[in-house]
Fold each of these.
Amino acid sequence: MNDGMANVYPVLLAGGTGTRLWPVSRELYPKQLVNFTGNRSLVQATARRLVPPLAAEKIRLVCGREHVHEIARHMEEIGIPAEGKILTEPCGRNTAPAILLALLNILNQSADPIMCVFPADHVIRDIETFHARLKVAVGLADQGFIVTFGIQPDYPETGYGYIQGAAPLGDGARVIERFVEKPDRKTAQKYLQAGNFFWNSGMFTFRAAVMLEEFRLLQPALLARMQQMGTAADPSEAQYRQLPDISIDYAIMEATRKGAVLASDFGWSDIGSWKSLYDFLPKDPDENVLDGDIIAKDTRHCFVLGHERLIATNHLKNVVVVETPDSIFVSDLGRSRDVKSIVSRLKERGRVEYHHHRTVHHPWGSANLLEHSGDIEIKRLVVFPDRQFDCPTSPDAWQQLTVISGQARMMVKGQDQPLLCGQSCVLQDEESAVFVNPDSEPLWLMHIIISGQSALDCKARK
C-alpha cells in the first residue's frame, strides 16, 4: 500500500431509505443493500472498490440500527470482517451528524488520520481513474483542504446540486466558490458551458483534525452534544434525536474557507432514481434496459425490471415498470422520481409495502411471507448455520412448524429433541419453542400461523 494512504480511513454512509427506488428499495431494506448493477449489493461494491488502495481493516460504516445485521452480513460475504467497523445511528439525522459520529470514533483510535467519506449507494464505472483521483484528494487533504469530488458534467442535469470552482490548485482541483441548489434546465446549461461548475457527488476527503476544528468553529452546539455522548459506536436514541437534522454541505462546506473541489470524471452516478439507474446501465438496440422474464414488443427507451413473474409489454416508450412479489410500479421514465410521494402516501395509509418486502431479514436468517389470507399466515423461514429462531408465542394462535430442508434441534417445554426433515411440531396458546440449526447448511422451515376463530377450531378438533 502507498505510504500516503496508510493512515486513511474510508467511511461509508449507509443510512437512508432510497424511497425513489421503491418498490425494490424499502425502509427496512434500502437501496444500499440491493444488487442493481452486478453480483454485489451497492454497499459491497462501494467497499470493494476502495480495497486497495485503502486498507479493509480501516473501513468504517455508519448505518441505522435496524440495518446493522444485514450490513454486517454483506461485509462478511465479501471477506471484510464487520466486527468493530459499524457505527450505529439510532435515528437518521442527515450527513453532518453521521460524519461527526465517525470522525470522533476514528480520532479516538488513531492520531491525525485522513478520512474519506463515501455514500454507500453510489456507482463508479472507471475504478482506475477513481483510484488516481482518490490519491490526489488525499494529497490535498494532507495540505489542510477539505476536498469534495466534483463530477465533470456532460449534460445539463437538473437533479443534482452543483459546486462552482474558483482559483486552480493544480491536478484539476479548485478552491470552492459556492454551492448551488438544483438548477432549472436553462441554468444548468449555462453551468455546463462555463466549465467550472461540477456535480456535487457527496464524497469528501479531509484530515480528521481539520474537520473537527471546522465543526468547533461552525457547529459548536452539534459538536458539544455529540461529544457528550462519548465515542460509543451505538449512542442512545434519546440523545441522538436532539441533534440537528443537517447535511454536511449546510453545516460545514458552504461556510468553510478550506473547501476544495476536485474535478473528476470516472463514470459516477448516485443511482438516485429509476431514471438515473436506467442512464447508468447498458441498453439493448431499442434503448431498453430489460432485466427478468421479459417479453417486449414495440417497446423503446424503457426500463423493465422483473423478479418473480413474466412481464409482457406492448407499444411502450419512455416507461419504467418494476415488479416485486407484492408491488408493481409503472411510471413515465422521466418522472420516476415522483415515486417518493407514493411512498409517503403508503406510509400515511399504514401500508406495510412502504416499510418491508415479503421477505424480511433477521440476524438469525429470513422470513418470507408466502400467503396471508384471513386468519391464516404461511411463512418460509431460513435459519443460518449455528443460529436459532425463537418462535414468538401467542395466547390465541395455533402454530405448526415443519422442517423442509436440513434438521433442527427443537427446545420446547424444557426438552431438547431433534426435528428431522419432514417432521413437524404444533404449538398452542402461549407454548414457546426455540429452533436451533446445528448444521453447516441453512435450515428451512415452513411456519403456519392460524389465529382468531380458525385457531379455536383447530384446537377443538385436536
Amino acid sequence: MSNLTRRSFFAAAPAAGAAIGSAAVTGDKPALLGGKKTRTEAFQSWPKYDQKEENGLIEVLKSGKWYRGTGAMVKKFEAEYAKMTGAKTCLATNNGTSALFISLNVMGVEPGDEVLLPPYTFIATVNVVLRQHALPVFVDTDPETFQMDHRKVEGFINGNTRAIMPVHLGGNASHVDSLLATAQKHKIPLIEDACQAHLGEWKGRKVGTWGSTGCFSFQASKNLTSGEGGAILFNDEDARERAYAFHNNGSGLKFIGANFGYSSSGANLRMPEFQAALLLAQMTRLEQQAKTRSENAKYLTSMLKEIPGIAPAKHYDGCTNNAYHLYMLRYNSQAFANLPREKFLKALAAEGIPGSGGYSPLNSQQFLKTVIESRGYKRLFSAQRLKQWAEQNHCPANDKLCSEAVWFTQNMLLGPRSDMEQIASAVRKIQKFAGELA
C-alpha cells in the first residue's frame, strides 16, 4: 500500500473493515493465505451525530442569520471552546489552514523571514509558510514520539528566524517546555499547530494554550469536526483583535458597521454560523470520546509493545494526555521475516484492520524545490542562503520514520476493548506467518 494522505485514508478506513460478522481467530492462517479474517465488521463510523446537530442547523437556518456578523453561534462557540481549553480567548476560522495563516500574519512573519517546522506533518503546515514567502526550515523528527526533535531546534535559529511552529502530531504533545524556552530565549513566537490535538495536554494544561497562538482544525476527520472549520486560541486580547481584523478583510471589532473602516489588510477567513452550530453539538461528546480513545489506546499499547518489531509512539514525560487523532507505531520488518511494510499493511487490511503508511518526507517534495528555486525566492533570499538551505535540508531520522510508520485512525479507538484485541491478534497472526507472506 502506498502512502495515503491523512484525509483520503480516513475516508476509506471504515469501508476497509466492512463485512458481515466479527471473530478473532488467532490460530488460523492469515486471510492472505486462505485463513479466516480476524475481523469481519466495520470499525466505528465517523462523524457521530444525533438530534443535537440537526436542531442546531435548523436553528441557524430559521434564524436567517447565517453570517457571524449577524448571528450568535460563532461567538457562542468561541466562548465555549476557550472555556473548554482554558484559553483566555478564541477566534473561529473557516479552516485549520486559515488558523495557521492568520497566526503567521499576526505574529509578523513576512517575506524573507524563516520559520522552523517539522518535516513529519500535513502539507498545510508548510503551505502557510510559503504563502507568506518565508523560508520553511525543517527540524528533523524524534522517531520515538513522531514529534519535532526539540533538541535540534536551537541549531537552526539565526537572525532571520521569525517563528517556531511545532505540530502536536496525531494528538501527542511536542516537548512544550523545551520549545517554549528556546522561543523565549530568542524572543520569537511559538505558534502551536494543534490541528490534530483537541484536548491534548502538556503538564495538565491544554496544548494550544502555551504559545503565542494555538491553531486547531475541525476538518471531517478530526476528533472535533464540522466538516471544515478552524480556531485560534490566544492568551492576549490584543493579538486576538489583530487576528479578528485580518480574518475579516481588515475590519476589526472596533470597525464593524463603521462606514467600511479598516485597520489592516486581510482576507475573508470567517467561520459560518452553520459550522459553529455543528461544533457546539459535537463538543457535548468530545470529552467522553477522548476518554474512550485514551483508554483503548493504552490497552492496545500494552499488547502491541509485547510484539517484537512493533514500537508504539512514546510520549514525552510532560504529555499528560494524548488526544489520539492517530494511533501511530513503527514497524520493523526484520522482526517479521523481512516482510515489507506494504505487504504488512496489505495483510492487515485482509484481516479487516485498515492501516496506513502515513506521511512521506515533506522536506523533499518536488513542489517545495520548485518554490525555493522560483524567481520570487531568489529575490528574497541570497544565493548563498538558498544553497545553504538545500545543503541543510536533510532529515535522516524522518526519512527512516516515513519508511516504518503505521497509522490507525481515531475512529478505530471508539469501540469496545475487543476491537483492540482484534488489532493485536491480527498483528501476531501476520508475524507468525510472515515468512510465508514475504
Amino acid sequence: MKVVILCGGLGTRLREETEYKPKPMVEIGGRPILWHIMKIYSTYCFNDFILCLGYKQHIIREYFLNYEYMNNDFTINLGSREKIVYHSTHNENWNVTLVDTGLETKKGTRVKKIEPYIKEDRFMLTYGDGVGNINIRELINYHLKQGKIATFTGVHPISRFATVETDESGEITAWSEKKTLEGYINAGFFVLERKIFDYLDDDCELEERPMERLAKEKQIAMYKYDGFWHCMDTYRDYMFLQSLWERGEAPWKIW
C-alpha cells in the first residue's frame, strides 16, 4: 500500500517556523517531522510515499532531491566531472512521489489530485504534522475486519487549558493543567479504499462533506487508540515534541 501524506497547508498557527518553511519541514531532533512520520510507516515496511505539496513546496522538493548528499558520507572526485561515491549512513529505502496539489487547495481536493498515482485497491493517508506510536499493522487489520471504505485513528484529546473540578458548593476539589478529555478526535492515520475518490471533488474539505456522507452511509470506522499521539499545531506543541526527543523519551521513535 502507498502512504499519502498531506504536506500542503499554510501552518498559520506555527508562524514562528512556517514563515520560512512548510510545517512538515519543521525539525524535531534535527530532522523534519515529515521524516519522523515516514519512519513510523517504514518501520512496518511501508516505503512507498506520495506527498501532496502546496505551500513552499520547493523546500520539500529540494530536501528529497538532495537527500543522498545530506544524509550520507561521500567522496567526490572533482577532476572527473564530480564523480561521487556514497558511503551509506542511512537505511531509508523509500520511493517518494512529490505532487503539486496547489497552494490553497482543500485537503479533500489534494487527495483527489493524487488519484492517478494510486493503482492499488487501498492506501493509507495521514497529516504531515502528527506523530504517534500507532501499530500500523493492527490499524490495517482493523480496517479489513470492518469492511468500510474509510478508517481513521481516533485519539483522546488533551486539554490545552487547566481544568478544574468542583463540589456542589462550588469549592475547587481538583486542578489539572493537562488532562485527557473524554471522547475522540480524528488523528489521521487513515486506511482508505479506492472508492474514497468517488466522494471527493475539486472543492472539498476532507473532514467535511466526504466524511459526513461516509458516516451517513455507515462506511466509516474509527480505530480507537489510547497510546501516544501528538500534533505539532502550535509553537508550544513544537517545543513539547522537541523536549521529548532531546530527553530520549519520544514514544513515536519505534525504529
Amino acid sequence: MLILYDIDMTLLETDHIGITLLENAGRELFHPEFTAKGISFGGSLDPVIITQMLVNNKVDNSPENISALRRHYHAGLDRTASERPVARALAGAHELVNATREHTGIDAIGVLTGNYPETGTIKLRSAGFNPDHFVINAWGDASPHAEPLRSHLPPVAIQNYREMKSRTIDPEQVIIIGDTVHDVRCALDNDCRVLAVATGHATSKELEEAGAHLVVDDLTRTQELLDWIMTTPAHR
C-alpha cells in the first residue's frame, strides 16, 4: 500500500507565504505591479501557477522567465526559512504521517503535491516533518505532459513505486490524502482511494460531492483513519 499526502492545508499551513514570495519575486524580476491577483492556488501546480502569473502580468511566459521566477521564489523561501518558521503542522498531521510510515502493512508514504520539490521540502522541514520519510513522490513539476494537470501525478507516483519496489501496485492500494476537490478528482481519475480533509478552503460537503471516499474535519483521529486506510477498498 502507498499513501500519498498533499502538503499545503493538508499537512501544514503557511499563511500564504508562497503567494507573497512569488509576487515579490515577480516585482524584482519584471515590474513593480506584478501581482498574484486572479490566480487560483488551492490544488493547482506550481508550474501552472507561475505560467498563469506571467500571462496575467503581461510577461512573456518563456522557459527562461518561468525558471527565473522559480529560482527567485525558492531563494526567497529558503532565506525566510533560515530566519523563522515558514510553515506549521496541522492538527494530527504528524501523528498520521508517523503511523502510516511505521505500519507494517504500508509499503511507503510520499507526497503528491503541486509544490516544486525544492520549495515543498522547505515547507515540510519547517513544519517539523523529515522530508526523507516521504520516499515515493509526485511533485508539481512531475507531469510528463506539455499542459500539466494534477491528474497526471498519481501515475508518476505509481511508476516511482514500481521502480523502487520492483513490483506493480493496484491503484486501489494507493490512497491520496488531500484537502481540495482537485485532490479528490486526481485520485478518482486514476482509480485511487481518497481521504479528503476539510482543513482547506473546500467544505466537507464540496469534498463529499466531488466523490471522496472518506471526508473528515481534520487528521486528529489517528487510529480511526489508520483503520479506514487498512480496510479492503469498497468498489464504487
